[in-house]
UniProtKB/TrEMBL annotation:
Bias (Gly residues): 77-87
Xref: CDD domains: BTB_POZ_FIP2-like
A single BP term in Gene Ontology: protein homooligomerization
Taxonomic lineage from the root: Eukaryota, Metazoa, Spiralia, Lophotrochozoa, Brachiopoda
Keyword Iron-sulfur: no
Domain BTB: 398-467
Compositionally biased residues, Low complexity: 524-540, 553-580
Pfam families: BTB_2, Ubiquitin_3
InterPro entries, A to Z: BACURD1-3 (IPR045068), BTB/POZ_dom (IPR000210), DUSP-like_sf (IPR035927), Pept_C19_DUSP (IPR006615), SKP1/BTB/POZ_sf (IPR011333), T1-type_BTB (IPR003131), Ub_USP-typ (IPR028135)
Organism name: Lingula anatina (Brachiopod)
Region named Disordered: 58-89, 502-580
Name of the protein this chain belongs to: Uncharacterized protein LOC106163078
Amino acid sequence: MSESKGKMASLSMPEPPVQRALIEPMFHRPYMEGDFWYGITLEWMHSWKTYVGILSKKGSRPAGRRGEREKSSDGQGASGGSGGPPGGIFTAKLQHSHGLAMVPEDAWNTLFGWYGLADGHHIEKCAVYNYGDKVEIEVNHNPFKVMLSNSLKDPACECHIIRFSKAERVGHIEWKIRETFHVKRSVQTRLWGRLEGEDWQPLFDREKTIGKLLDIDSDFIKPDLALEVSDADSIWRGRPARAENTQMNAVGQFYKFSIFEDLSQSWEKDVHDQIDLIGRNLIQKMHQNFNNFMNRARDNLTERELGIQDSERHLEERENEIAEKMKLLEEREVKLGAQISQHNQNVVAFNKDREVMVAQMEEERQELKKNRDEFETEKKDFQDELKRMSQLHRIQESRVKLDIGGQQFTTALQTLQKEPYCFFARMFSGRHSMETNADGSYFIDRDGTHFRYILNYLRDGEVKEGTMPDNESFYNELLIEAEHYQIRGLVEHLKNLIRQCGKPKRRVSPGESPPERSYSTRVSGRSSGDSPPGRSYSPRMPVRSTGDSPIETPYSPRTSGRSSYSSYSSSTGTSSFGVR
């Protein structure tokens, strides 16, 4: 044993087969909203599974379930040595770890009772939350902007950012805000909340969770919370602007501890108390700094007021100067009268010249009208041509819905035709009659698990680094799909990756020889009607006649356990297309 027995173990440890029989079924439990799961490092979990016989001592570590990953983030050893039980449990935060196994609460309580915690590790408890379209472990707590609703009209109102779980009860959140703003216990309060851009909602039921009341479906939403304090006569007058006018009181009790603190040990609570003390000291210092800022602002305003008084004296002096200049302007007015008389004479001469210019302008206006008529004709022809081009562009950019083995994918027709000689370029070349399902999609009888990688390659024209799992088995599976869809650049890229792994890329059935093909590594820019220079490439796909079985013609070698043929069928089971 390289690790000593963990602290706080409270239960006698049974034999390894008994441990396995009790704990292993719990690992397959699905996520249920409201449950709690706990984080354990993969090293410790691997040591325990080896100890109880779930994994062989020489076997490779399987991919983890849910929170488990292939690599560990902390590199700490949790193994107990040669064949013995592991030491205290190693834990890690879900949002900071790349090697973590999540276990349900009853499994955690049992393991914790047997092994306890390793020194320096803490209980990492996570809530299961329903995000609307899926139920998952909550990785991050949302930041809430909290304030007093009675002071919202003040631009300099005090605000704080506090993180809460979406599964947290309103009773604890309201208690925490009351403590932040030092609200006395005898004073009644109620809580309001809103999402960005929405109206305030009453959060008067302290037993409900904040995520359900505000309909939060993401870890990155930053809601606002306003605590309303009642007046001395118990009348609610400080509700936020545009909030519902109601005198209803909040119901339910306050909760001093959050849903994650009920299992905390005494040493953990001491840490939280120290953090709270540091926070209160920080707030006091912030108040002191704010008061100093206000004093400096008042001094600055006094200086500005003195500056304004000096400006008023300068303004009076300028008014006297303006009066003297007005006298000079009157003298200049007399002189301007004489100049005006001369100007009137010039106007008479100008009128004569204007008549000549008007005649010339009329001639030019006729010429301009003629040119304008010609321009309007050309403009109409151009708009007609632009309209035809716009219609052609919309046809080219039309969306296509594909049903790949039951999974729906929607993309642009132009994306599917980027690879000129691929499966989809021939499918949508217009030379084949195709039928769609009832929902307008084209059904392709292939595994849809890897199709998103095929589609991303057609969109980007390349495989971006870090977008695919680094796994040879995955490369072989994706290669089969790429060969089926005849994506030459992706096939060549995957073959290079498999060669780098130093293992055979895939198996070939007895009596079957591998095909010899030459592929490029980028999506070609040639149209689907061209043929690649210097060689002949004639893939064949199945043809199905109405009411008959499909006539299948192989276009590539079969691989063990997978079909190398595709069929396209509608809801009526009628014919699809074939490309030769």
